[in-house]
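A reminder from the course coordinator: this example appears on the midterm review sheet, so study it carefully.

Given structure:
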């Protein structure tokens, strides 16, 4: 049996930018070991696996090359893009995904896709031993949610200059670390980078789920509900965010890079 497999660049409208995700369309469930092997073969920060859900939408799971994760924004964006572009789902219908983080939805707005995700606000926390040393920064603020640490630094230049010691960072028991500051130029309100060596991803190019923490954090600081985040990795990408109570709307674009079959 040939299984459709895609590579999609998410949170960008340009090829070879944003965050590449694998998207695998399955007719029925497969075991976790098989999906982990496929994700390791793809060797992207996440590969998404979709199965038609009884009733409506799709069951969706995400795997890094090393582990399964509970929430992933860019691979969900890529999945929505694929089900619409491949005509699995009509263009005028929302995409519904049943996941470990609840039901996530995606809707089309022209060339943009908006994801409805749970907010993941951080609470101020003491930096664990080795965190700031592994990043090589002085923190203006350290917070944590159930997934990640968030470290605010002085300015965008410091965010761009971070060169982590990944071996030390991987020793910290957390999914990942967000480093952020206010943006230095027009076109974005804040900037960030995201590191998750413990999950098998040294630096994630553009991280939708991290913006579930960044949106309420910067929304509170800036007194706004709608903002634009720029992730300043080497590939880079833009995430439009909108805080709506205990939800965060993540807006992004996507482009297909590769279509193939898994044999």
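Designed residues:
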């Amino acid at each position: 049996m040939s299984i459709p497999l895609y590579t999609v660049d998410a949170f960008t409208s340009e090829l070879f930018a944003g965050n590449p995700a694998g998207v695998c369309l399955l007719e029925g469930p497969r075991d976790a070991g098989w999906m982990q092997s496929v994700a390791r073969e793809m060797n992207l920060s996440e590969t998404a696996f979709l199965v038609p859900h009884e009733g409506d939408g799709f069951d969706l799971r995400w795997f890094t090359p090393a582990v399964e994760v509970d929430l992933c924004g860019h691979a969900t964006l890529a999945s929505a893009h694929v089900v619409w572009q491949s005509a699995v789902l009509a263009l005028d219908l929302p995409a519904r995904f049943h996941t470990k983080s609840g039901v996530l939805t995606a809707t089309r707005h022209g060339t943009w896709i908006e994801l409805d995700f749970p907010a993941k606000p951080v609470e101020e926390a003491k930096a664990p031993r080795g965190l700031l040393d592994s990043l090589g920064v002085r923190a203006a603020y350290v917070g944590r949610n159930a997934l990640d640490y968030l470290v605010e630094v002085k300015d965008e230049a410091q965010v761009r200059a971070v060169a982590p010691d990944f071996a030390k960072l991987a020793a910290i028991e957390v999914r990942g670390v967000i480093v952020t500051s206010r943006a230095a130029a027009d076109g974005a309100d804040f900037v960030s980078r995201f590191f998750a060596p413990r999950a098998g991803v040294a630096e994630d190019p553009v991280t939708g789920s991290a913006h579930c923490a960044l949106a309420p954090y910067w929304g509170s600081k800036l007194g706004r509900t709608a903002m634009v985040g720029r992730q300043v990795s080497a590939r880079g990408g833009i995430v439009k965010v909108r805080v709506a109570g205990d939800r965060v709307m993540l807006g992004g674009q996507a482009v297909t890079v590769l279509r193939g079959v898994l044999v």
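The domain at 3-114+252-262 is CATH 3.10.310.10 (Diaminopimelate Epimerase; Chain A, domain 1). The radius of gyration is 18 Å.
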